[in-house]
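As a warm-up, study this chain.
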Amino acid sequence: MENISSNKLVDDTLKNYEFIHQEFWDKTKNLYNVQNYQLFLSHIKKVPPYRILDLGCGPGRDLKYFAGQGHNVIGVDGCSIFCQMARNFSGQVVLHQNFLDLNLPKECFDGVYANASIFHIPRRDFVSVIKKLNLSLKREGIFFLNNPTGCDEEKYLKEKYVNYMGIDLYKSYVEQAGFELVAHNYNFGGNPIVEKFWLACLFKKINKIKTDDD
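Now compare it with the structure written out below.
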């Protein structure tokens, strides 16, 4: 992976999602993971409704769930077709942004929910992207991620770049971005894209930090 630029890794992944967008939606639209939703929401120590960022919202399944619970939710995705699908399906605001070039409001969100998305962030860029999420969160904001886990490997899988990390690597990288690990568990995820166990992690913002752009 070191000989391939980060932009190409991400562009190839987004192009593949554009190509399979309907197949992806047909397979995932009913996979509501209520256990993960409840874990995420239960750790936000604010008065609801919460302001939530759905990072890598895809066609909008989780956006619609959180909005249906009365929360103020915004989606962001790098795939333009997914963004339009998510707007139509959820009725919520969806930002079309590449993860490598996020431009988010500062100290805006009570929580960031990232399901099956950040394992597409190139490992070399991982900390810098998570730092931007730190700045978008309010004090003690919650960052939830759920991704397939593996042997700490990077590779192409079905024409998409994937960054498989175990709990120790996630903890190391995300803590560098000003968070602390609150809880984690393993699950089957329900997502048919990859046949692996999934790792759900819950982090809390403990420090406000600067990014390279500040």
